[in-house]
Amino acid sequence: MEEDVETRKISSSFLRDHSYATEADIISTVEFNHTGELLATGDKGGRVVIFQREQESKNQPHRRGEYNVYSTFQSHEPEFDYLKSLEIEEKINKIRWLPQQNAAYFLLSTNDKTVKLWKVSERDKRPEGYNLKDEDGRLRDPSMITMLRVPVLRPMDLMVEATPRRVFANAHTYHINSISVNSDYETYMSADDLRINLWNFEITNQSFNIVDIKPANMEELTEVITAAEFHPHHCNTFVYSSSKGTIRLCDMRTSALCDRHAKFFEEPEDPSNRSFFSEIISSISDVKFSHSGRYIMTRDYLTVKVWDLNMENRPIETYQVHDYLRSKLCSLYENDCIFDKFECVWNGSDSVIMTGSYNNFFRMFDRNTKRDVTLEASRENSKPRAILKPRKVCVGGKRRKDEISVDSLDFSKKILHTAWHPSENIIAVAATNNLYIFQDKVN
Amino acid sequence: MFLTPVVPHWPFYNLDTMFVRGLKRKCFDGEEDIEGTLAGIKAIPSYNLQRQSLLDMSLVKLQLCHMLVEPNLCRSVLIANTVRQIQEEMTQDGTWQMIHTQSTGQASLDRLVSTDILCRSSREQAEGKHVSGYSAFNKDFEGDQAQDSSETMSTASSVQAPRNLQSNVWEMENPQENKGNFQKSLDQIFETLENKSPNSVEDLFSEVDNSYYDLDTMLTGMMSNTKMGHCDGLETFSSPTATASNSNFKSDLNELDHIVEILVES
């Protein structure tokens, strides 16, 4: 594998002052843009922080570009729903980048109810020498102007500004869990627990409902939508996952309302593992298309599965993330950890998949060699530029020196959000309110 | 309206081991000898208790959803499905009746099986012993509670088969135990569920009043004498160990009064 992707940590926790970790700083989403030059994070306080990779220096080719803060802005504010007397959290649930089409960068960010399109642009020049106003901006007395001049652009300190260009509101009754940009770059979808809406970027007062699984009688509700994504190449195809462990692939060409799926992916239940928690742990927390568009990856509580779009009756690969938790399900149910929603990501070549776990552990699986590794994102265990050491959880019996026993795991330290650079072996791992960026070891 | 149910802080490890143990002994062959039957009896209530505890825990979780921020629908649906699953299994087992008889005089939830006949017959078989209620929370799952259930052993059989005598497993001869708060807690849960709508589950998804209570109390040391916030419910007992290892409750109103007396004094 890229077991030697046992990466070197180049920087830790850009974001916050760790002595005063507040809940608003908890990172809730991480996403690279399409070139990998930018990395966006959203947090529970409604802020978005964008990092930019610095240009590689020719003088020091061995030193890879580091990520530095590029822009910070408040994307969403807390709101109050007066009808229901409920607060609307400002937590950023998802960020998705649009492909770059000009000098500016565009991203979508969403909280539970509202999606916003942000434009992030640079300004490094400013005009000087106006005729009608002086350098301070005060208007000049027209009678005092005796000559004309052409304003010139002078360089200034780089300023990065983020402006909200569109606000897509009031279309979701339930909490938005996913947004996905379509490959046509003109539309995108937003999915909540029961409905999926299709938007055009230019139109904010209208959206099309393409999936609706709300039962006529809410008593009969037994299943919700947990994640949704467009196919990377086919703009008519998308998938959505459910809390019952199923994935539906829909084709928007068949009908306006895609309530009937084109394909239905479900693995038959293993009767020997049946318990009262079977359904809960089968609930899919994330679904991602491979870059090739041929496979989808799903994450449920204990496993990651890779499915071939051409085979609906079972996944082609199943990877155990932390099977040692299977005997702890009741306790995890009691403390609500069983409802944690872990995400999963592909690497650029679709050969390695990565997902998070507890105790600040995250796991990588090489699909070709079938090898896997557990790594830890913590400052204590890794110094900058040191190679990460593989970790191991000891299940029972004698615990070796470097192993950690299941009962010692810290379940408050969960890695739910990770991201992988689109073409290089650079990963971003969010551990509560710290962001870790790891890079491939350079020879 | 909301009570503060008592959820004991089980040790992380023990609870799951007990669950595993209970599940393993689920399929019990009723034709074994008395000793085997004894062991079976000890294990079977263990499974039922665990299942009951899971049910209670789930109901608590559903109620805890009603907070300032809109509850997570996915979580609520999953918990509700778990509750349904347990209820269905208990209905098949015939144990669901137990809970129902404790909700004194109230209209039954739709999915509850009519219980009166079952209860009566089991009472008769128990030779005048009380058919008591259920155990909301019980720390001791080892099944070594002093159960005066010798009469039931002869009719012990698989948990799967619906048995009238299932109710006798809950039978208890310890009127002085302080278990009233658990019983009443659960009663209140069912009360609130029933009062809302014909179907308890549906209401859990609809808008509800924000009855505030001390969430921290709920999630942390609930066994200690903590404030209940706005809740009208009972105060918890100071120590979980004070509660006996018994699993049964009497439906006797006098008993309830007795308990309330104790609470008021404490």
From TrEMBL, chain A:
Keywords assigned: Repeat, WD repeat
Organism superkingdom: Eukaryota
GO CC list: protein phosphatase type 2A complex
Family listed: Belongs to the phosphatase 2A regulatory subunit B family.
Name of the protein this chain belongs to: Serine/threonine-protein phosphatase 2A 55 kDa regulatory subunit B
Lineage of producing organism: Eukaryota, Metazoa, Chordata, Craniata, Vertebrata
TrEMBL record, chain B:
Residues annotated as domain SERTA: 47-94
InterPro entries per record: E2F-SERTA_domain_protein, SERTA_dom
Highest taxon in the source lineage: Eukaryota
Cellular component, GO annotation: nucleus
PANTHER family named in the record: CELL DIVISION CYCLE ASSOCIATED PROTEIN 4/SERTA DOMAIN-CONTAINING PROTEIN 2 (PTHR16277), CELL DIVISION CYCLE-ASSOCIATED PROTEIN 4 (PTHR16277:SF6)
Record's protein name: Cell division cycle associated 4
Species the sequence originates in: Falco tinnunculus
UniProt lineage: Eukaryota, Metazoa, Chordata, Craniata, Vertebrata
